[in-house]
Design brief:
By secondary structure, the chain is α/β, with parallel strands linked by helices. Helix content is 42%, strand content 15%. Strand 2 (53-54) and strand 3 form a beta hairpin. It holds the Pfam family SBP_bac_3.
Amino acid sequence: MEVRMKRIVAALAFGLGATLLAGAAQAQGTLNSIKQKGYISCGSNPGLAGFGVPDAQGRWTGLDVDFCRALSAAIFNDVTKVRFIPLSAKDRFTALQSGEVDILSRNTTWSMSRDTTLGLDFPAVNFYDGQGFMVKKKLGVASAKQLDGASVCTQQGTTTELNLADYFRANKLKYEVVAFASADETFKAYDAGRCDAFTTDASGLYAERLRASAPDDNIVLPEIISKEPLGPAVRQGDAQWADIVRWTHYAMLNAEEAGITQANVDQMVKSTDNPDVKRILGTEGKYGTDLGLTNDWAYRIIKLVGNYGEVFEKNVGQGSPLKIQRGLNALWSKGGLQYGPPIR
């Protein structure tokens, strides 16, 4: 019996070790795997206007969608080498952990527990957000502190649900939670009158209001009750892939700060004497090869996708139906939090 038990323990240990090694090998080879299969698998939100949503023809648009296209541009010089995988909030982390997707680019909050217990890394924040509330005007509510006794629709398995509980407890308010598995179910329940208020990230409130049966009958309350730094996530253990994701965002920020746009990037790459611009566009130094890419990786991103400001304005800013102000997502030089470390 003792010998048999030792064999079982040894077999289990071997199996666990093999699994860990396989996971490490998978993580270490993300860029090579992407190049071999010829596309990036991008875990996406299947229905959040401005961030990730396919149209009737299956064409995806959104801020997070364009981030995956920027990675495709950097790697392949082609924005079409992406397969968007629609993921619910409940399934998103499992899909990334299992290797079903190479990156999660899906309005996901970077929190300590997610960073330390899920085997994931959050290389950058591409949208600073905060949780808020939406109510129907007829409710006669002007502040979240007037929601004592209200029923609140929220999505299961999100930080939203936890923040909701914290806010009402801290303000000694009573409430009834009405939770649903998907964002679509949650908003439809609110729109149908099954709850008094709807809560999610403020950006999501403006996006979802566009889908309401009567958008103008709804208002977003002024309170922001949480910090929601949203950004892409990758598996831990692959520093190269995390660096590519991180510096793709920083390259887009640095391009905006330097005044490099889709419209002028070809002119800038030929005529500029500015050393910062030269390093960004790859005509000076070997910063791209240090990432495992070509030296014109950032030029490709700007040429094919745009700088951060262009992508923001098109998808969620004044050039979009959402018309969200830059606010915290303005460049640091314009009063915001978006700050790209130097490429040098």
